[in-house]
Write a structure and sequence with these properties.
The chain is mostly helical. It has 1 helix and no strands. The radius of gyration is 32 Å and the shape is rod-shaped.
């Protein structure tokens, strides 16, 4: 080949990982949504358990010894 050498290919190639990074971003968004939904579900369940426990407990004050009450 005579003349100037090209410093890079023409036309420039697409990034072969561009589609993968786009798919990864979509998967990350879906994963984030699923994790948020799971966190909301667990928070509701924990609140429900605390409410049930408090509503069924007989609230006794154990902060002072029995002879001082």
């Amino acid at each position: 080949m005579r003349g100037r050498r090209r410093s890079r290919e023409w036309p420039p190639r697409r990034d072969p990982h561009a589609d993968e990074s786009c798919a990864d971003a979509v998967a990350d968004v879906k994963c984030d949504e699923a994790l948020r939904a799971l966190a909301r579900l667990l928070a509701r369940q924990a609140a429900r358990e605390v409410f049930e426990r408090e509503s069924t407990d007989t609230r006794e004050d154990h902060s002072a010894p029995e002879d001082l009450r």
